[in-house]
Amino acid sequence: MGIAKISVISTLVGFELIIKQVLESRLITWGGAASVFPGVQLSLSHNRGVSFGLFESDHWLMPYGLAGIALVLVVAAVVWTARQKSKLVNLAGTLLAVGGLANAIDRLGDGAVTDYLEIGWQAIRWPTFNLADVFIFIAVALLLVGWRKGVQDLDGHPQ
Prior knowledge:
alpha+beta
């Protein structure tokens, strides 16, 4: 992994951690929620589990276990994607690393991942999430698109 990729990952992870810290502070002041526009609001939530609150626990070891698993997955994804010649796969690996690292570092701070984005209409709401989750979602979507279309290397040849 090159210095440019490390710089991009570090910058985006730092950006997400700053966003989480600022929004958590502001949302506490604003009473926990603030409307952005119809269907989108900022809403403070702390996830002590994994996606959608699965495996939520207050056990003191859980944050370390979940962060450790996230770090292993991030390393595996970065190593695997770095070996691929596809720009699409490399971008997906970078986004996975950013999302996974940002959430793992956040979890180690207070035992929970800070979520702040909520979308939905009236009673139909998606669980609260954060920018790191968006990066992970986009990465998985890119990998699926690449897999579906048959990923090509940098010269346009199928892998």
